[in-house]
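Friendly challenge for the regulars: who can give me the structure tokens for this chain first? No prize, just bragging rights.
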Amino acid sequence: MSVRVIVLAAGQGTRMKSDLPKVLHPVAGAPLVRWVVDAVLGMEPDETVVVIGHGADDVAAALPDRVGTVVQEEQDGTGHAALVALEALGDVEGDTVVVVPGDTPLITTETLTELISAHRGLEPAVTLLTARLSDPTGYGRVIRDDAGEVVGIVEERDADDEQRGINEVAVSMYAFAGGELVRALNEVGTSNDQGEMYLTDVVGILAAEGAPIASAAAPSIEVAGVNSHDQLAEVGGELRSRLNREWMRAGVSMLDPGRVYLDRSVELSPGAVIMPDVHLYAGTSVAAGAQVGPSVYAEDSQIGPGARVWYSVLRGAQVGESAEVGPFASLRPGTVLGPETKAGTFVETKNTSLQRGSKVPHLSYMGDATIGEDSNIGAGTITCNYDGFDKHRTTIGDRVKIGSDTMLVAPVEIGDDAWTGAGSTITKDVPPGALAVERSAQREIPDYSARREAQRRSGE
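First reply, four minutes later:
Bragging rights claimed.
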């Protein structure tokens, strides 16, 4: 018996008040629908099709190649969406057809597997996943008879006061006998508050015909849907908590995991230490022994073994082994810090590399620069890399000492073992081992203060 899965992801999500389709709202580094699809693919179904509609091209682009898509041109309800998907799937007689919504990112492969197992064990016409919620507002209520058998689902907008008091809800996840689903869907009408085809009506039709109906219970946390930004934040918190627990079990240390924000694509090595208020986004990795935080934002960056990064922002940067970044450093794309280097307090770098042992300790900008080994850049140094039309490179050799407040006007090259005097503006190449000083001779004006005071008084 094949398992075919339908993921419903065609809606706009008007309650999000956003031009972005609801299922594309990002949470913990992936859109809502991708979390659902990945949970589905974990079951290794025979076929998966995602029903798309609003923003169809963008939603399709967010999906893995292993799933198919079908466009629901008119959003006429969940029942209609299922019909559209069944047309794409073809003959499902004898198959198990699982239907899940695309806005429930907390659902797990394990719970979906249990739904299928319960369905196969009992072989009913449909097995619906249910949950008991302390606040069932917004969900369809599960209606049972006196014997406890499921006889239907009523949507909240169509429920009476007694039915709204029921706390067992349908969570829009089902395992159907394929043939029964097709037959019952063709009997679903639109005589409801929304004038749409409800997939939930299939359960009532099957129950009225005496077809066997089963149910399986799900943890309430896993079935939370997203219809607003506050709900998006809630499921995001749960997903991040799951990620953090997995990393800590794998050997990563977190002082306060509730204040660590990771995308799911982030890679952490055992022995890494993540301090509070750290935000690590797509493309970022942290090696063993590195300490990140407090207060670090990093995207598309690699932090090497034993490095320390704190109170800093990294974008497209590479931090080498035992290097130090911060506090209050900004490493922009193209920054490569070699082993035992330093980009210190209020340092900004862009498209710049530092070789082993070199340091930019504080209050400097290094843009479009190459710095050799064991060189030191004095406070207040700037590479003047832009001439108003083009960017130019600065090349600094090994064991160079750049004096404080040096302006390096690119293109310029400073040779190995060279020095620059503090306060210099360097416009020409400096030979290896030389000292370059460019500043006017100091002058002193005797009694300047007294003369100024006399001038002020004479004007009173």
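DSSP finds nine helices and 39 strands in the chain. The chain has a mean pLDDT of 94. Your move, everyone else.
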